[in-house]
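EI: anyone free to look at a 347-residue chain?
SC: sure, send it
EI:
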Amino acid sequence: MSAAGCSALWLAFVLLLALALALALALSPPLAKAGGFSCSPGARPVVFNFGDSNSDTGGIAAAKGRHIALPEGRAFFHHPTGRFCDGRLIIDFLCESLNISYLSPYLKVKEFLFFKDRSLELINQGQETPIDAEGFQNALYTIDIGQNDINALLSNLPYDQVVAKFPPILAEIKYAVQMQILYDNGSRNFWIHGTGALGCLPQKLSIPRKNYSDLDQNGCLKTYNRAAVAFNAALGSLCDQLNVELKNATVVYTDLFAIKYDLVASHAKYGFDRPLMTCCGYGGPPYNYDLRRSCQSPNATVCTDGSKFVSWDGVHLTEAANAVAAAAILSSAYSRPKIKFDQFCKA
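SC: here you go
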């Protein structure tokens, strides 16, 4: 499994799970109660994250025994952490907003189910555990998927056939959320991210093309972005449906396409000089991306200042871009329903 992609239907089959326990319990007062989200004074946020490499805090490296070296992690951690980034991911900034520790990676969903079952078993025996039954129910389950799945499809199929693959993918997601692992196991609070602006990835832009007719005014590929928008529209509708069908549950859908496309379209506003060029890659301008030579290749070139770049390795964002994206998520302006990210906790 490469940094550029992972197996399709990641959520349903090879979930990366991370658990965060609050070490500093500073949660701002809740807004008006909405749906299943609730908070009480002195409450402790609990977050479980399911996602692909965009929110992987080290699961792929652990599962595959993959050695990840510098420059990964150079901007913040100053050493590799298993993240495909020069520093923090979007999920890291979201955790910071709750004053909780960064997420620790687990390998697969079965580890989550074992952890939960074992915790409840110990509670029944009168022992203390990091999370109790109410904690599992009140926790926020974040789901960040789609980019690798749609990316892989677009690499091998024409647009119409890619769109035709959306219904079964969405059906798998619905089954995973509603029946297979989450809701039927007591989960009630879900925060689901759509896919990003795939047509703005240097990985895709570096593919040879006959002409420039598929490029939009910002230099992104219209076909890839059209597929991302179509997928997100279907995913958003699915989230609306789940909000109706799942009793006492809240499902928040966040449009990451709009957020990530704005990183390119409004790059100057955020201080980015090279919105379509990879910071860590090979080949030089305009994209500095070569499919055969990743950021981890010995002859890869690395930019001096990652804060001037949107893309870290051609697929994943730099820490600077992740910070902007996280701020947009926290604003709730791109979410439906418009619920603040901190409007949940462990009672």
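EI: Residues 10-257 form one domain.
SC: 👍
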